[in-house]
């Protein structure tokens, strides 16, 4: 297969983003006809149809949807390549607007800000602490930091910057009253403190000592939308929590919480940055992402 032309890929991405050949072509400085020919060339090179065309609307085929996601990665790589060359010349300035998970932001990102602000004196930071999934484009954020898997948004580029292990834990008071679960199945008889936001309830996937991933079926009488609130509920003896280790390391070390099912492995929590894909990443955003990778990536 012949290698696809990067310009044709950019036209395809612009047409999908805009929802029409006319608007997409205009965004690339092309006529409707030229935009249509670019996508036809791309489809011929790939040997598959990317768009369903009607007189009223465009829609992505399954192959087009997959190629669009790959296209986001391609354009992000191009941005990275340009930034790596211009990086030493670009100065971070302006207002960096962040939305971050409350617990992660307070415990791990706030300590990074002193180093970031000292390195880039022309930058100001506005940080929103919320576990709510904000709309970056509509709400004007430069960057979002999220924990775990997020719903795909074709307007955004994602990057994993750090990983943490999850821990099952409960207070000694709770365990003295209810006993310790002996295996994953035993969680069905325990109160499990679940994260729940906008009617989306968290599920627990655990890998047992046989190496098999299973879904825990614990009962849930209390659901909360904040990691620190779940930790505090566990400290109050309200149930068993399933949290990233950075959130409970201190409590485990002091004995205020106790790890349960130590032979069972929890899922890895990925810390992901999300930012709009329609422009070259501003130096103030890139510098903060780079700092996160440098300080938290290990």
Automatic annotation (TrEMBL):
<dbReference type="GO" id="GO:0003700">
    <property type="term" value="F:DNA-binding transcription factor activity"/>
</dbReference>
<dbReference type="InterPro" id="IPR000847">
    <property type="entry name" value="LysR_HTH_N"/>
</dbReference>
<keyword id="KW-0804">Transcription</keyword>
<dbReference type="InterPro" id="IPR036388">
    <property type="entry name" value="WH-like_DNA-bd_sf"/>
</dbReference>
<dbReference type="Pfam" id="PF00126">
    <property type="entry name" value="HTH_1"/>
</dbReference>
<dbReference type="InterPro" id="IPR036390">
    <property type="entry name" value="WH_DNA-bd_sf"/>
</dbReference>
<feature type="domain" description="HTH lysR-type">
    <location>
        <begin position="1"/>
        <end position="61"/>
    </location>
</feature>
<comment type="similarity">
    <text>Belongs to the LysR transcriptional regulatory family.</text>
</comment>
<dbReference type="Pfam" id="PF03466">
    <property type="entry name" value="LysR_substrate"/>
</dbReference>
<dbReference type="GO" id="GO:0006351">
    <property type="term" value="P:DNA-templated transcription"/>
</dbReference>
<keyword id="KW-0805">Transcription regulation</keyword>
<keyword id="KW-0238">DNA-binding</keyword>
<protein>
    <submittedName>
        <fullName>LysR family transcriptional regulator</fullName>
    </submittedName>
</protein>
<dbReference type="InterPro" id="IPR005119">
    <property type="entry name" value="LysR_subst-bd"/>
</dbReference>
<keyword id="KW-0678">Repressor</keyword>
<dbReference type="GO" id="GO:0043565">
    <property type="term" value="F:sequence-specific DNA binding"/>
</dbReference>
<dbReference type="InterPro" id="IPR058163">
    <property type="entry name" value="LysR-type_TF_proteobact-type"/>
</dbReference>
């Amino acid at each position: 297969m012949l290698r696809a032309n990067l310009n044709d890929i950019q036209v395809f991405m612009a047409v999908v983003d805009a929802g029409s050949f006319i608007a997409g072509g205009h965004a690339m400085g092309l006529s409707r006809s030229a935009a249509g020919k670019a996508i036809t060339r791309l489809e011929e090179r790939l040997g598959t149809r990317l768009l369903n065309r009607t007189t009223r609307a465009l829609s992505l085929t399954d192959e087009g949807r997959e190629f669009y996601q790959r296209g986001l990665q391609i354009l992000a790589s191009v941005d990275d390549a340009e930034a790596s060359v211009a990086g030493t010349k670009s100065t971070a300035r302006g207002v960096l607007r962040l939305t971050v998970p409350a617990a992660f932001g307070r415990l791990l990102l706030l300590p990074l800000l002193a180093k970031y602000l000292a390195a880039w004196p022309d930058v100001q930071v506005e940080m929103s602490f919320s576990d709510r999934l904000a709309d970056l484009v509509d709400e004007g954020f430069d960057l979002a930091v999220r924990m775990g898997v997020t719903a795909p948004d074709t307007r955004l580029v994602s990057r994993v910057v750090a990983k943490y292990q999850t821990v099952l834990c409960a207070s000694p008071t709770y365990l003295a009253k209810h006993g310790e679960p002996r295996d994953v199945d035993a969680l069905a008889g325990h109160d499990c403190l679940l994260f729940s936001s906008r009617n989306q309830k968290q599920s627990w996937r655990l890998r047992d000592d046989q190496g098999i991933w299973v879904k825990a079926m614990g009962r849930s009488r209390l659901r909360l939308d904040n990691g620190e609130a779940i930790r505090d509920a566990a400290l109050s003896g309200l149930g068993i929590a399933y949290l990233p280790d950075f959130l409970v390391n201190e409590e485990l070390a002091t004995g205020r919480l106790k790890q349960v099912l130590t032979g069972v492995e929890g899922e890895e929590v990925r810390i992901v940055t999300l930012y709009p894909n329609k422009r070259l990443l501003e130096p103030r955003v890139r510098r903060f992402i780079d700092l996160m990778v440098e300080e938290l990536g290990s």
